[in-house]
């Protein structure tokens, strides 16, 4: 799976890419030299709106220049270039950018609100920050917004984020 490093102007894009399940590093205060070094060492493609950064050596051949200011349009652009399959919704920790792991319901009893515990069956957790994730209102809103973005993007091979893929494209 392709991995990315978003420049410091692309925080919302990075967040929404993680919601969609892309592996994307992001730091809001990182200088260009450090960003390039880390992207290069970890084999990540740089996403940038900075023409000077895009012209640097190595970066020239390893970046996608993001054309729009709006994160929805930006995500559309990323997907139209690199494609997307819709079975990765909320599979990555939005804070740490690592894959979530499923966790037994019994183990989260004391770590989530009791109404959440009593109304949900499946939970996942981040191996780094230990945050617990579950389905819920917030998740439904994110899913709807992501679906809106994906609908506009021709290369997203999905009908719904719940897993049904469109094989005709
Ligand atoms: Zn985390």
Question: How does this model look, in words?
Answer:
By secondary structure, this protein is α/β, with parallel strands linked by helices. The chain has a domain at 3-89. Helix content is 34%, strand content 14%. It contains six helices and seven strands. The protein has helices spanning 11-20, 32-41, 51-55, 71-82, 114-119, 137-151, and strands spanning 3-6, 23-26, 45-48, 63-65, 101-103, 123-125, 132-134. The strands form two sheets. The chain has a four-stranded parallel β-sheet with strand order 2-1-3-4, with helices on both faces. Strands 5-6-7 form a three-stranded antiparallel β-sheet, with no helix packed on it. Strand 3 (45-48), helix 3 and strand 4 (63-65) form a beta-alpha-beta unit. Helix 1 (11-20) crosses helix 4 (71-82). The chain is globular and about 55 Å long. The chain starts with a strand and ends in an 18-residue tail after the last helix. It binds zinc ion (ZN).
